[in-house]
Amino acid sequence: MAYLLVIGTRKGLFTARSEDRRGWEVSGPHRLDEANDAGMSPVYTVGINPHTKRLLAGTESWHFGPSVWHSDDLGATWTEPGAPPIAFPEDTGASLTRAWQFAFGADPETVYAGVEPHALFRSDDGGTSFELVRALWEHPHRTDWSPGAGGAAIHTVLPGTLGSGRRSPEAITVAMSTGGVYQTEDDGASWAPANRGIAAGFLPDEEPEYGQCVHKVAAASDGSFYAQNHHGVYRSADPAADGWSRIEEGLPTDFGFAVVAHPHRPESALNFPVVSQEVHFPPGYRLSAYRTDDGGGSWRAVNEGLPADPYFGIVLRDAACTDGADVPGFYFGTRSGDVYAATDDGGRWEPVAAHLPDVLCVRAAEV
């Protein structure tokens, strides 16, 4: 079995391949378009379609603006559609800043894109073209959603689940900065906030209906959720019915950006703490990952193989993932340009790449 890791950075797209997830062959930066600067532009989101293995890359050219490229040969060649893949209808008065997230539905051709400004788009042709999900764009709360420090972005899209007891092809959960968590159970026709229990300490009402600065949400294998908030780490079996419960006790800090759920064990997840909103360093100035195996009841550092030297950069919200294999691999990249991989049966982080540009996003799959 071979494994592919797709890495989006501040200056281009890289890929890495491995047979054993310990030794990796890294290539890049990939020139998506030899005729312009697309190969060296920021890549804020990448996706690997689990059904077709089509790769998607959300780029932002300094000259040509944002776009979505796709590859049907695992990154060897790339195609940009003739028309802009994601474009706001004229009547919205909005324009695309960038894509922040790709997610895939049960149908092989269904792709969702979370973008900035706050919006969700849907594709029914594998990501070649997208249409605005109007009901979320026209939600009465939208005018109150504000940009977080990382932009006015829908950065998490989780099709298929509203919670451990409510899963269906018509269910979608999204999270945004700054607005919180919203859910639909009718394929995007209507949306409701699902933020009860998540704090917003920067607002007069610290537990509002919406307006939280959720940094990332991950769906566990049973459909429940883990969330890393602006401050606070949370878990919920069903946000709409049960709300969210804090689970950060045992972590060195409650601030961070990324969280990754185990693909097979709902009680297990990884977290990557950051000192604070003002100090974007790892705690103790040492790169660390923390793991829970009891649903957030306790956490332990899983640092074997990571550098012991002080300050190796933080992990951004989309720069950590799992490949979902039977024996899963876990991956993360840092703002220092280092990428690491570990497997559930190995327990040790192995270096994939070093000294890349800032890592913005990673995705992995068996291929």
TrEMBL record:
PANTHER family membership: EXO-ALPHA-SIALIDASE (PTHR43739:SF5), XYLOGLUCANASE (EUROFUNG) (PTHR43739)
GO BP annotations listed: xyloglucan metabolic process
Name by which UniProt lists this protein: Photosystem II stability/assembly factor-like uncharacterized protein
